[in-house]
Amino acid sequence: MLVSPIPTHSKIYKWKDEKGKTHFTDSLSKIPPQYREKGKLKIMKGIPTESKDSVKLSFGEKHSNSYAIPVKPYGDNHFIVEVQLNGGIRAHLMVDTGASMIVLSERLGEILHVANDHNLPTMNFSTAGGNVESPLFILDTVRVGNAEVFGVEASTNPHFNGKVDGLLGMSFLGNFKVEIDKENLKMFLKPTADHREQLWDGHNGDWWKKKYDGYVGNIRRYNSHLKGGNRNHPGYFKIKKMVQHYSKLHAILEKRADMSGLPKEYRAYP
Predict the structure, then answer these.
(1) Domain boundary among 139, 167, 190
(2) What is the pLDDT of residues 93-127, one digit of tens each?
(3) pLDDT (0 to 100) of residue 151
(4) Which range, of 10-24, 111-125, 161-175, 220-234, averages the lowest pLDDT?
(5) Are residues 49 and 145 in the same domain?
(6) Is-contact 151 143, C-beta < 8 A?
(7) 34 and 144, same structural domain?
């Protein structure tokens, strides 16, 4: 989208990438973390109406303050959406609000270099094809249409066929209210809270508290298993990796909270 007369947003962020390209966005979550540092980010009152260069905007297609994303029907009442992982890896995932996280095929796991990474924690999953032990990892970015989320928990599963690359679960979808327009084949990703509420990065205090409590609860639970454990037992290191995994997710959330000015009362720590 080139710069042209469009409605003014209350707060616009301006930043330049490593190639010197200027970008504008109305959400801090869409700015790569390395460009959020002081001195690299400018806050503007409105979007510029003129520019010597063509400027790519990060707003995307919106409908009633939500992102409108095309979907394709798949099987009985399921839908496929195109997703971009880590800035450049394309995948076709089935929208699944019943999945706790993004689950990818082993083929994508190999492309992402997580399939045989022994430093990653693993978790047992019960699937239609039986129980599987799969790695847990964190995707730097997940982009669906123009909706983007940083630091997204994911895993892999060997039971996906070539038509579907995995599931788009709640580790991404939980950042939005999800609605599917079956007639027009569109998925709408809407804000999780009413705009009249006090919001931080588009979410109210209850959303933030639930997110913090989830990560902190896992850290405390796995840490409790480490106390008095045998350091020479293989299971000890497996549990320790789980602590490290959720500690990383907590750190990503904390950085996001700092950027949005979230009060301490909505945060939680191990």
Answers:
(1) 190
(2) 999 999 999 999 999 999 999 988 989 999 887 76
(3) 96
(4) 10-24
(5) no
(6) no
(7) no
Same domain for 155 and 109: yes
Counting other chains too, the contacts that 204-210 makes at CB distance below 8 Å and 24 or more residues apart are 205/263, 205/265, 205/266, 208/257, 208/262, 208/266, 208/267, 209/266, 209/267, 209/268
Task: Establish if 2 belongs to a structural domain.
Answer: no
Q: How far apart are CA 213 and CA 199, in angstroms?
A: 18
Domain, as residue range, for 256: 205-266
Most confident among 116-130, 208-222, 223-237 (mean pLDDT): 208-222
CATH number of the domain where residue 74 is located: 2.40.70.10
Is 116 in the same domain as 172?
yes
Its pTM stands at 0.73
Domain tally, the chain: 3
Mean pLDDT of the 14-22 span? 67
pLDDT at position 133 is: 86
The dihedral region occupied by 211, where left means phi > 0, alpha psi between -120 and 50, and beta the remainder, is alpha
The vertex-123 CA angle with 147 and 79, nearest 5°, equals: 35
